[in-house]
Specification:
By secondary structure, this protein is α+β, with helices and mostly antiparallel strands. The chain has helices at about 10-25, 60-80, 100-110, 120-125, 145-160, 205-210, 285-295, 330-335, 350-365, and strands spanning about 1-10, 30, 50, 85, 90, 115-120, 135-140, 140-145, 165, 170-175, 180-185, 190-200, 225-235, 240-245, 255-260, 265, 270-275, 305-315, 325-330, 340.
Length: about 375
């Protein structure tokens, strides 16, 4: 078996890369160890279409988030993927948070994001039940049905004669004169050849990197696992848009999120863990209630119940500053035909289409 491009990992990023490569005439296979696509990071996040407010001005995160916000709405309309431009309020619940809110506003404006300042009085008329000193409104933030997005990307790949191979584990890759010889296991071990190899394996990207014989350890990051819990809320509530409080020493800034049926959830928090596991720690409920009450005092704790857990693939350590997306090709690591992708956490979902195009352009040239 020979393919022009082999992609490890069928999350939204791997699938997007496969979409762009296959529709441009390259033969493509996506290797996925699980039984279906998007079982890792892609299906365990908030499903938010971000606007690009928070990230450093010239970062890949900002560049791809701005492009991806527009592209994802267009793609969702084209493919009839369930989505909604619901808007987001970033709120300061205390005077001490106003400076931080101003910094976020200024960063968003620098990044050319459409933002509106909202006064305490205006917020009181919109959300009388919330404690808000000031807010920023992001009209272009929205939500999307992630399983439908994954299905649409898979459909594009199949339409373009690409292949997504489930239950297929990547074992190792050996550099050859014309590309790579790859060992895989789908119950039986087999070999295949590819000209280009793309590591888009998310939480497992460091372990996969170790299995590529010519990639030196200086050119990939160890992945740190940042676990996030989401609690859903079953009662009546005042929320009609996403609400993002600021984090501080008293609160982890638990976001108010929505699914497309109108069910709200709170989260994620952040807990650094040593292993990938999706067990839910229900003892965190009191911490959630305490944090939420800072801006919504009338929450009924009995209506808050466990929803799900996600894990973010951090390439920075707990006390380090945010690192940008890591997308390294030949110019970075010196290996012809290899593109190694790591640290695709938020806004990775929003950015998936421009990342796919960007990686295809790396392959093209």
């Amino acid at each position: 078996m020979y393919f022009d491009v082999t992609i490890i990992g069928a999350g939204v990023v791997g699938l997007s890369i496969a979409k762009f490569c296959s529709e441009n005439g390259l033969s493509v296979v996506v290797l996925e160890k699980d039984t279906r696509a998007g079982e890792g990071i892609s299906s365990r996040n908030s499903g938010v279409i971000h606007a690009g407010i928070y990230y450093p001005h010239k970062s890949l995160k900002t560049q791809f988030c701005l492009q991806g916000n527009k592209a994802l709405y267009e793609y969702a309309n084209l493919k009839k993927i369930n989505h909604k431009k619901i808007g987001k309020y970033i709120i300061a619940s205390d005077q001490s948070e106003i400076d931080k809110l101003d910094q976020i506003y200024n960063q968003g404006i620098l990044n050319a994001v459409s933002l509106e300042r909202v006064t305490k009085k205006e917020m009181k008329s919109l959300y009388p039940d919330l404690l808000v000193e000031a807010a920023i409104f992001s009209p272009n933030t929205g939500i999307i049905d992630v399983p439908e997005l994954i299905s649409a990307l898979e459909g594009d790949i199949q339409h373009n004669n690409g292949l997504v191979s489930f239950n297929t584990a990547f074992v190792s890759a050996r550099k050859t004169k014309n590309g790579f010889e790859i060992s895989c296991n789908d119950g039986n071990e087999f070999l295949m050849e590819t000209k280009y190899l793309v590591n888009a394996s998310g939480l497992h990207s460091d372990e996969i990197s170790k299995k590529i014989d010519v990639l030196k350890k200086d050119f990939f990051y160890p992945i740190k696992y940042a676990k996030g819990h989401y609690f859903k809320y079953g009662g009546t509530h005042p929320f009609t848009s996403l609400v993002y409080p600021l984090s501080n020493e008293f609160s982890s800034g638990l976001h108010v999120g929505f699914d497309l049926s109108g069910q709200i959830r709170f989260g994620p928090d952040i807990t650094w863990v040593d292993e990938i596991d999706y067990l839910f720690d229900e003892s965190l409920k009191d911490d959630f209630i305490k944090s939420i009450r800072r801006y919504w005092p009338n929450i009924d704790p009995s209506k808050l119940s466990p929803d799900y857990v996600g894990i973010r693939p951090k390439i920075q350590k707990m006390n380090e500053k945010m690192k940008d997306f890591s997308i390294i090709g030949y110019k970075g690591h010196g290996v012809h035909g290899l593109i190694n992708i790591q640290g695709i956490e938020s806004p990775g979902l929003t950015s998936c289409l421009p990342i796919g195009k960007y990686v295809f352009e790396m392959i093209k040239y």
